[in-house]
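User: tokens in, sequence out, please.
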């Protein structure tokens, strides 16, 4: 019976059995520490295990005790080791780019109420707030939700808010407290809390990428008028070399024909074989063989040269997309 029960119950369902065994107060305390999606999954599982048998309960408890004994209280900061490994494997420039996307923030704004609201509710709540407050709140959201909130706000304020998101930096505890009051008109800042950092061009780019293509096309020209440097940084962060793989064969072939062979050779020198074959597959066999021969003849190349060539290829792609020569993917478009 034990073997069958443990094979049948998923991890969430085993957690649901344990939740059914503790008191209401303890269960509520546990739920308060979970993310909204985790609460939904656990709640649904609790309904599924409502008819759990006594033997199955024992099996779940035995499994829980066994797992608990395997855990330790030993902890360490993994960042130095991870950073050292990334730098050794990828080099400083690529490592910095990867770490910027995967390193957890040192502190969080902890505006938990946002997780329980959908995009229209958040947009309605911040529509009349100062653009700086709206910028911080949107930066605190998942990028896809942030993009939806941005496009629900009045057109006139969207470029200003995106600009503020890109320029965000340290947020003081007092500012965090003000935001919490805006959200819930309750709670006080925790003693000894520290400032947090939100936003940046990468975050602004993610948020704009989560909006529809029409929003991007409307906001970016206005943002260039507000701050050309920030707008250019956001535009570059929105589109990296790997995004070219999203082009279909026809558009990728058109792009390749518009790229000088020198730039193409250098660009493909810095990618793995699978990506390289994707590009070369959109060329004639003779042209592809020529590029392969050229890459082999060049031998090792400096990473800086490869990255510079890839940036040039990206710029060509953006130019072709703007004049309608090729079609590139973006946020979800409206259809009529």
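Assistant: Sequence out:
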């Amino acid at each position: 019976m034990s073997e069958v029960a443990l094979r049948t119950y998923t991890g969430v369902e085993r957690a649901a059995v344990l939740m059914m065994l503790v008191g209401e107060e303890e269960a509520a305390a546990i739920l308060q520490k979970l993310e909204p999606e985790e609460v939904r999954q656990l709640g649904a599982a609790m309904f599924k295990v409502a008819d759990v048998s006594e033997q199955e309960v024992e099996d779940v408890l035995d499994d829980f005790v066994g797992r608990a004994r395997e855990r330790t209280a030993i902890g360490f900061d993994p960042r130095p080791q991870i950073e050292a490994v990334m730098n050794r494997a990828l080099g400083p420039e690529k490592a910095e780019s990867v770490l910027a996307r995967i390193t957890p923030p040192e502190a969080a704004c902890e505006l938990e109420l946002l997780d329980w609201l959908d995009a229209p509710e958040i947009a309605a709540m911040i529509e009349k707030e100062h653009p700086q407050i709206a910028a911080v709140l949107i930066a605190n959201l998942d990028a896809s939700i942030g993009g939806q909130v941005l496009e629900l706000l009045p057109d006139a304020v969207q470029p200003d808010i995106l600009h503020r998101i890109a320029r965000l930096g340290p947020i003081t505890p007092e500012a965090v407290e003000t935001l919490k009051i805006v959200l819930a008109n309750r709670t006080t800042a925790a003693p000894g809390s520290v400032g947090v950092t939100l936003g940046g061009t990468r975050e602004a780019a993610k948020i704009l990428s989560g909006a529809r293509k029409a929003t991007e096309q409307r906001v970016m020209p206005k943002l260039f008028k507000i701050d050309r440097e920030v707008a250019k940084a956001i535009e570059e962060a929105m589109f990296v070399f790997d995004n070219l793989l999203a082009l279909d064969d026809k558009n990728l072939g058109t792009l390749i024909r518009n790229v000088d062979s020198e730039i193409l050779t250098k660009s493909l020198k810095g990618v793995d074989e699978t990506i390289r074959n994707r590009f070369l597959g959109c060329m004639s066999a003779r042209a592809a063989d020529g590029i392969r021969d050229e890459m082999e003849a060049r031998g090792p190349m400096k990473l800086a040269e490869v990255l510079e060539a890839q940036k040039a290829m990206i710029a060509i792609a953006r130019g072709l997309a703007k004049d309608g020569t090729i079609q590139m993917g973006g946020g979800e478009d409206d259809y009529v």
